[in-house]
Amino acid sequence: MDNYRKYFAHFVKENYPNIHVKILPEIEKHFTIISRDIAFAKTSKNPVDKRLDFCAYFLALIKTLDERGETFENIRKICLQITTEYVKPKNRFQSYFKRFIPKLIPTLLGQILVKSFHKRVSVNKSPEGFIANIITNKHQTFGLGYGVDIIECGICKLFNKHHYSKYASILCEVDEITSGLAGLQLIRSGTIANGAKKCDFRFKMVEQ
User: Fold this and answer.
1) What is the crossing angle of helices 20-34 and 5-15, to 10°?
2) Residue 163, by phi and psi: left (phi above 0), alpha (psi -120 to 50) or beta?
């Protein structure tokens, strides 16, 4: 079982104690079909594409619950329960590491890593994947020297392909959670999932 699957199983059981044994196989059935569309991510040189396996499983959960007549708000609630628990640090080292990354950015090593990251995410051989630009101008990034513009969103492409685009914005909410765990405040004017031309990620440090 992939690491993330146990979080899905836990909260499906918690929310549907009487029928989870039926729901979980339905999720797997949907995922088997959906995963064909993101098979390229396993060999993609764009590291952001690696998120698509996790997101495809989310889509499988959403499809399953939607077909069972579940409301948007309940689906959103369960998705956020899963992601909040999944991204939460499991020990002190993980907690420290999440907060260390933003502090690394201004250093020489950090800038080398940022430039290398930009080269890898700014192009994509697959039309189904992500394309992003890394912003390093301090005046455009609240002095941090790091921001991200998602130009093409692989998640939106996947959800659109399966006619579930209205649910893609749920995953956008996770970005605020992960930013907070890194000691950052996420500032964003729009997302592709909500109709913007790009997803602009800008951050402010909220702790020293």
Assistant:
1) 140
2) left
pTM confidence score: 0.93
Q: What is the three-class DSSP state of 117?
A: helix
The number of distinct structural domains making up the chain is 1
Q: Which amino acid is at 62?
A: I
The answer for 207, left when phi > 0, alpha when psi is -120 to 50, beta otherwise, is beta
Single-letter code of the amino acid located at 142: F
Q: Write out pLDDT tens, residues 171-193.
A: 999 999 999 999 999 999 999 99
CATH of the domain at 46: 3.30.1380
Domain span including residue 96 = 5-205
Contacts of 110 (CB under 8 A, 6+ apart): 104
Radius of gyration of the chain (CA): 18
